[in-house]
Write a structure and sequence with these properties.
This protein is an alpha/beta fold. The chain has helices at 13-22, 55-58, 82-89; strands at residues 7-10, 26-31, 40-45, 48-54, 74-78, 94-101, 107-112, 118-122.
C-alpha cells in the first residue's frame, strides 16, 4: 500500500469544497471540468488528500450505499501547529471539542464539517 485518500459521499460538492477551503484545502481536480457543477472533487492540504463525490452521482451504480450522509466517519488529521490552526478556524466552523490534552499525550480538537462528518485535528 502507498496511500489512502478517502472518497466521501456528500450532498453538495461545491458547498463542501467551499467549507474545506476555509480549512486551507486547495482544489486539485473536479469532474466534470469546464465550469459545470462538480459531482466529484479532489482537495489537498499538505500531505492530506480527500475526495468528495455527490451521493446522487454514485447511488445509481452502487445502490447499497444509499444512506444518510455524515456521522459514520471520523477523519483524524495530524498537524504541526494545533493551537494556531484552532484559532484560525474556530469562528468559521462548528467546534465539537476545543483543544485538550489526551491521556496518550496528544493535543486534539474536533469540528463538524458541513455534511456532519467529524474531523479531529491532533499534534
Amino acid at each position: 500500500m502507498e496511500s489512502l485518500s478517502p472518497n466521501i459521499y456528500v450532498k453538495d460538492v461545491s458547498n463542501t469544497m467551499e467549507f474545506y477551503r476555509k480549512l486551507g484545502f486547495k482544489s486539485i481536480m473536479t469532474l466534470p471540468e469546464g465550469g459545470e457543477e462538480p459531482v466529484w472533487a479532489m482537495m489537498q492540504n499538505g500531505n492530506v488528500t480527500i475526495m468528495f463525490e455527490s451521493i446522487k452521482n454514485i447511488e445509481g451504480r452502487l445502490p447499497e450505499i444509499s444512506r444518510q450522509i455524515g456521522g459514520s466517519l471520523l477523519l483524524y488529521i495530524k498537524v504541526q501547529d494545533i493551537n494556531g490552526l484552532f484559532e484560525s478556524m474556530k469562528d468559521q466552523v462548528t467546534v465539537l471539542q476545543e483543544p485538550q490534552k489526551t491521556f496518550y499525550g496528544a493535543t486534539e480538537f474536533m469540528i463538524q464539517d458541513c455534511n456532519g462528518f467529524v474531523l479531529t485535528f491532533a499534534d
